[in-house]
Amino acid sequence: MVTQLDFRNPELVHRAIDQIYKKISKPAAIMEICGGQTHAFMQYGLDELLPPQIELIHGPGCPVCVTPLELIDKAIAIASQENVILTSFGDMLRVPGSQKDLFSIRADGGQIRVVYSPLESLHIAQENPEKEIVFFAIGFETTAPANAMSVIKAKELKIKNYSMLVSQVRVPPAMHVILSSPNNRVQGFLAAGHVCAVMGYHEYPQIATKYNVPIAVTGFEPLDLTLGILEVVRQLESGKHEVVNSYSRAVTYEGNITAQEIITEAYEPCDQKWRGIGIIPMSGWRLTKDYADFDAEQRFSVEHVQTKESEICIAGLILQGLKKPPDCPAFGKQCTPRNPLGATMVSSEGTCAAYYRYVRK
Ligand code: SF4
To answer: Which of 5, 120, 129, 281 has the most CB atoms at less than 10 Å from its CB?
Structure first.
């Protein structure tokens, strides 16, 4: 029986890497969509063990990084109001807005609380009936079920002082945008295992066929990542372009149907703006009419924020896989995790933060 520890077994990992060396005969540009996988590659030094023909292109799968600047500015505007408690995952506090970040609003007396789940925000709402509780509901398919569940529960429990500021994004439409770009260099994908655990991978075969790209659904341990790369290399070398589930201990073709039902109860698909990339058609979810009362953008009048991006930051190009952090003149100089100019240097899934932390040049 293979245990979780086996997926960190150095001997098995080296064996998989040996197989990649034996298989590969030509350059291969492979995108790991998920920022968590970018960090895992670097944390375990796998990127440096792979054959030089392999270029890892880091994808936009960092929820903090792709949350639109307008929404961060709106969160700041809402959190600055007196009767509001804004709740958020911790990384969002240090993401630069146009003028300030949420951290500085908290330092100035704004009530901002870090939570580990949206349901925690609901408890805060129940404990503080005189306050408006606004949860900053960001993320990919992985956070959508819990975020959706919080408004379903709020409705059931008749909690009136709870709302969400929503930036909920989906991976497959972003893959279409990357692959249809005239600048695209991506030849194969590692699809994010945790996203597929929720949504399944039934949306991926049409992407593989349309753009002739192999896709390996991949987990997060060293052996998962190397086997994912091996699968993509195998296919590239033999001219195939299929979807293979290399993370079958967590992912099924259909995904988690219960989680999907929770999502569709509260959310509906919509066009969505991605920071640094722009609007991607039908790449997001918004609250349905039935849950519109829980939409913070409707509850608070904050539609007139004026945004201003950093003139130096090239995070948008990094998120599209067109540049790497060392290409940015500010990397490690004006921009560090202590003094980030862009979201990709803040987040624990951000590419710039990974290069800085694991000292990649
Ligand atoms: S190093 Fe900083 S300024 Fe440069 S792209 Fe990354 S986040 Fe932006």
So the answer is: 120
